[in-house]
Amino acid sequence: MGEIKEVMMAYLQNKSFMDSGTKLNDDDSLTMKGIIDSIGLIELIDFISEKYSIEIPEDLLTPENFDSINGIVNIIQKLTK
Amino acid sequence: MRIDEYIANHAKTSPENIALEEKDKSIPYGLLDETINTIASEINDFDNCKFALLAESGIEYIQALMAVYRSDNIAVPLPVELTESNIREILNSNQINNIIVTEQQYSRFGNAFFEGFTTVIYIPNDSSVKNLRKKIISENNNELLRLVMYTSGTTGTPKGVMLSDENLIANANSIIEVLNITPKDKAAQVISPHHAFGNSIINSQLIAGGSIKIGGLTFLESTFKLVESGVTIFYGVPSTYRILLKYPSSFQRSFKNVRLAASAGGAMEEEIIEKIKQLNDRIEIIPMYGQTEATARLSYLPSADLEKYPDTIGKPIPGVELDVVDDSKKPVASGVTGELIARGKNILIGYLNDEEATSKKIIDGWMYTGDLAQKLPNGYFKLLGRKDDLIKVADHRVNPREVEKYIGKQNEVSDVFVVPVNHEYLGNAISLMVIPNQNTEIETLHTFCRKNLPGFLCPLEIILIENLPLSKSGKISNRSIIEGYQNVKANM
């Protein structure tokens, strides 16, 4: 869990509208907080697919799975099992 | 007539017909009309005053917009995808006293943001309405003005396009005719309603008595579900189609019963058209061309001619005249390149508080598009780039010189250049080349861009350079910048 979270936080720091001053809780909505937009999310999904060599079927592209750090970490864990 | 009066008519003749749908909510025309009245009753005592509209895409946005129309006031929709500082610039440059805001946007911007407004109308998630503060201050606005629309690539000094009831209705009716929209049509609105294209979906669907299914493009599972739930007309910019086509099997399944895929905002590449056709060979594809200054649309390419004239913008929509003129504003023969000009009831009143820009845009009743074009012998038109240096980024029209000025003024740099670069989904994105001074930090520049520019303008990369080779004329142009960028990349 810890490692995937670190990778995601580093990605968001570099690639999203988040900067080092942004406070982000694990359950915060990334879209509501303006950290990621639709294109940003698609790029994030490409990044995850490549990084963890997994395919993410489109029926998993839901807010539950991709709108928070917790959701993202959980779905990666599920798909890499 | 006003757009909202068409809704009132549908409410009388077919009150049970669905007008708007969003997630599990669906609003028939009768109820839509009542809700518009409820919101309008809060502001009926204002006369021809500007109301900023701060609302995300959704049922509430459309209800509030129509309520401003019904109360005979002027709507100024604020593009919510912009950053707070961009939105402030729009508000500051236009002296707007009144605002209508949804619960979601109120909590995003916070109490302090609204202190400067003398009237604040608040719309909670349950679609009721509350006035938090109200004071009528009379304003001296153009009598024809109904809507101020910002172009989607607005940065720096925003230019508000002033549109009238006649503009909105004329363009909506032309679109209804071209797309053959009927009360049976259900349109998907997944693009922003705050700009010309999204706004035209609202107007043409509601005048025709059809319905609008409102969704987004962020979580694609719900986008595909929305399309699958009975959409007959899908509207998207080219990048919308690029994103959805990334998932061909979902596209095929959900677009099975879509009769028409309309596009605008940029050229549909043949590759996109071919992929759509492969997945649904019965779907009609109609690319359209236009500008915010023309309310939305100016021309369309009939689907029968897609293969024969794929690189054209087709012919004018009904009610619009197009022509190509030389530098002395005289029409040129077909096959000769000049500036594309347009005339019709959809052409803007002018730019808000900017007579100089207006007098350059509208000359002798013709609107100058700034697009270079040729007329073909069959009466179709072909675009050949811009007269000025505007570029398309993610299907938004962007002035790179303005973006450079904006970044340059507020950062420790000696010079900044915007380079359009290819992007898998956006078509074009931008990178920056920066001539640094002793205090330049790349990370600080990235942070600035993320905070102050809309997402599609955040640079993919920032490259430090020593100097930029100027073009022969000694001027900075997109061409000299792209050449400079290619040289830098070749030596990296």
Automatic annotation (TrEMBL), chain A:
InterPro entries: ACP-like_sf, PP-bd_ACP. Transmembrane segments: none annotated. PROSITE patterns: CARRIER (PS50075). Signal peptide: none annotated. Residues 2-80 form the Carrier domain. It comes from the Archaea. This is Acyl carrier protein. It comes from Methanococcoides seepicolus.
UniProtKB/TrEMBL annotation, chain B:
It comes from the Archaea. It holds the Pfam family AMP-binding_C. Keywords: Ligase. SUPFAM superfamilies: Acetyl-CoA synthetase-like. Residues 9-352 form the AMP-dependent synthetase/ligase domain. The keyword Ligase applies. The keyword Ligase applies. GO terms for biological process: fatty acid metabolic process. This is Acyl--CoA ligase. InterPro entries: AMP-bd_C, AMP-bd_C_sf, AMP-binding_CS, AMP-dep_synth/lig_dom, ANL_N_sf. GO terms for molecular function: medium-chain fatty acid-CoA ligase activity. Residues 402-475 form the AMP-binding enzyme C-terminal domain. Belongs to the ATP-dependent AMP-binding enzyme family. Gene3D superfamilies: 3.30.300.30, N-terminal domain of ligase-like (3.40.50.12780). It comes from Methanococcoides seepicolus.
